[in-house]
Amino acid sequence: MAEPIVRIDGLRKSFGALAVTNDVALDVMPGELHALIGPNGAGKTTLIHQIAGTLRPDAGRVLIDGADLTGAPPAARARAGLARTFQITSIIPSLDALGNVALAAQARAKRPLRLFGRVAADEALNGEARAALAAVGLSTRAAVPAGRLSHGEKRALEIAMALAMGPKVLLLDEPMAGVGREESGRIVELLRSLKGRYALLLVEHDMEAVFSLADRISVLVYGEVIASGTPQAIRSDPAVRAAYLGDEAA
Amino acid sequence: MSITLLTIQVLNGLQLGLLLFLVAAGLTLVFGVMDFINLAHGVQYMVGAYLAAALIAYTGSFALGLVLALVGALAIGLAMEGLIFRHLYARSHLDQVLATFGLILVLNETVKMIWGAAPISVAVPEALQGAVAMGEGVLYPVYRFAIILAALAVAGLLWLLIEKTRIGMLVRAGASNAPIVSALGVDINRLFMIVFAFGAMLAGFAGAMAAPILSVEPGMGDSVLILAFVVIVIGGIGSIRGAFAAALIVGLLDTLGRSYSVDLLRLFLPPAAARGVAGGLSSAFIYILMAVVLFFRPEGLMPARGRT
Amino acid sequence: MSAEATGAGAAPPAPRRALALDGVSPLVLLALFGLFPLVAIATGQTYWLSLVNRIVIMAIAALSLDLILGVGGLVSFGHAAFVGIGAYTAGIMVDGGRGDLLLVLPVALALAAAFGAFTGAASLRTKGVAFIMITLAFGQMAFFFSQALYAYGGDDGLTLFERSTVAGFPVLENKVAFFYVSLGFLAAAYTLVRAIVGSRFGRALQGARDNPVRVASFGFDVFRIRLAAYVMSGMLASVAGVLLANQAEFVSPAYMAWQRSGELIFMIIIGGLGSLWGAVLGAAAFLLLEEALSGFSEHWKLAFGVLIVLFVLFTRGGLADLLRRLTSRGGARG
Hints:
The complex is a heterotrimer.
Chain A: E1 6-15, E2 18-28, E3 33-37, H1 44-52, E4 59-64, E5 67-68, H2 74-79, E6 82-84, H3 97-106, H4 123-135, H5 151-164, E7 169-173, H6 181-194, E8 199-203, H7 207-213, E9 216-221, E10 224-229, H8 231-235, H9 238-249
Chain B: H1 3-34, H2 41-59, H3 62-83, H4 93-115, E1 131-133, E2 139-141, H5 142-164, H6 166-176, H7 178-183, H8 188-210, H9 220-235, H10 240-266, H11 271-296
Antiparallel strand pairs in B: 1-2
Chain C: H1 2-7, H2 19-43, H3 46-71, H4 80-95, H5 101-123, H6 128-147, E1 158-159, H7 175-197, H8 200-210, H9 212-217, H10 222-248, E2 250-251, H11 258-271, H12 276-296, H13 300-314, H14 318-333
Antiparallel strand pairs in C: 1-2
Helix pairs in contact in C: 2-3, 2-7, 3-7, 3-10, 3-11, 3-12, 4-5, 4-6, 4-10, 5-10, 7-10, 8-10, 11-12, 11-14, 12-13, 12-14
Subcellular location (chain C): Cell membrane
Transmembrane segments (chain C): 23-43, 55-81, 101-122, 129-152, 177-197, 265-288, 300-319
Keywords (chain C): Cell membrane, Membrane, Transmembrane, Transmembrane helix
């Protein structure tokens, strides 16, 4: 049995009296696509913040590739192999698409902050960046300032940036948020192509996509994981059905 | 280093701190509620002092001159808000800095054109002349006590306004979370104008009160502005309570630091060297304090914004 | 943010910056500066030589600020302190008989680096408005400290009875030679800053300006990147200070007054944020304007303030952008 790439243990976070993350345990195995779903207000965003390092948990541990990074800042987690995308598109608008991705690759290059040498002509970085752009189907848009890409292209660019970091695990925060039907189909195919090559933790509202992609699904309700298992098992889980139906009825 | 002398220095420190608070209060609210950086706030202090000087001389009455000066400071504040600041709320901080910097040049120069570059002095009102004996033949001017009391009264009034009135509630809410206030359907522009005008008047009041004990001169607002910045940063941006505590700390530290650093350094250094080093060091005390506070608490001592 | 994200669906074609102009204009500008002394001597206008020399020196300071403000997005309002540190180092060392440029420069750079590391480490822990205020306050700290340097004139400042030598030779005593030395420093500073901006470091710095959270998520330590830029920028500004003290043969606390910091910001805003040759242009525009206005009335600051306010209210992008827009439009037509 291989070791998990991401392991979360007994994670707790409260805001005042409200427990937003209540004793959450979760892991992602190498090559696995583990999806995290839950109704609005279930605490998915708070959980992601704690995994990514932008929010410190009250208790519990976050391990990435065996290293305890519970209190570590986001940059340290990135260096440990965690790459993430953001729910609200987060790019660098003044750089072109290639520059965005090359900057991601630059972070793990040998001398990431070298003061001399034109970075625009840095073929080692550009090569990696082009490969990542090609993987997400943005090769022809490399020279376009990132701020001018379409929304769907920006979502794809986010994934390319994460890939260029050479990560061990990808944390994908609603990659299909706000994307039209056609483009979301493209992103599903993209994610499918990443399956098996990376450990993936996917948070997504698009149930059709989640159930067609995931190896394993965990369901978060009111800060607790109420179920975890294969898509078939989750589909027929009475507690999950109740949580979702209850949520829709309310 | 007698007790009497210490008492006097503490009183001086309190007085400086309270005046700083009056200036800083408006500034921190404007930052907190509007996220607007107003370098020209110090100019309001200067304007208050000049108006007081001119109007006291013109009316021959300290009280009347003071009230008129407040009205004038308020009017000038409203004019600046309506003409310039209103167009800057949505701009970047850099634009705000630059425009209000330009405004400082304009107002400092205007004051110089009207009243000249030389300092002018304001007489202490007759009723508040004289001094209180502090023992051993050391006297402390009544007027300085009056400043302390008046500033305390205004601070108390401010506290009541903010804690007990609807506008105060909105201001507090705005300082910790501005979008929520506009979501409540409040006319945010009117709220901005009120906060702004009120802050301008407070700064003007501080300037007017300080006029008799300072030399009133062009640029006198600039150094106060920077001290007020230090106060706000130490106290936590947007926090009135923080501004109050920090203003007193800064006032006391600056005053006591200046008077005692020479004595302290003399323990280690020859007198001449001690004087030289102390001069540089004592002016740096509050900035060092600021650096230390920031290092441990980047949000200031009493941050207004809720934790997220 | 969200409007930006949703409104860009049509993906308009990428704006082509006038690359040729970006490459050529600094050279043209340098050449113009280089020819200036010849013109000044030929026409006997040596007063203008010292004005233009001041422009060249202030352009170095403006360039250094542009690195952190324009490229790094950090609104530092205490930059004059670094200029002052350089100026006082020169003044005090010349006064002490150790005024050779080869001695003064390393000391000034080291002091500026130390001051930058201390103030930067404290102020970069904050963001936005707080950062502006804190850099301003640290600038004032330096200002008051210089006022307390009683041995070196205190408030009144310090007059230099000679200029720095260069490797023992009194090169700077000659106006024209001084001018070319300053111009050499400007050219070097421009090349250096340009190299930094175009490097891996520069891209990370620029990225952190636009989106620090994203850049940190890549694994970069944004704080250290900014601190390094802040220190480098301060060191470069101190070079301008060393030259300025020698040029004026005088140093005083006024060099560090917070208005000087404001003026530096205004210079790079006029020139266009982040445009390096715009910073040079802005320094020139600022000092010429100051010269023109102060010749016109003793209350020139009034007009100056009004101009600043109007400039902020009614223009965006500065002179460099204006020139670029004009020339690229012309290019499209022709």
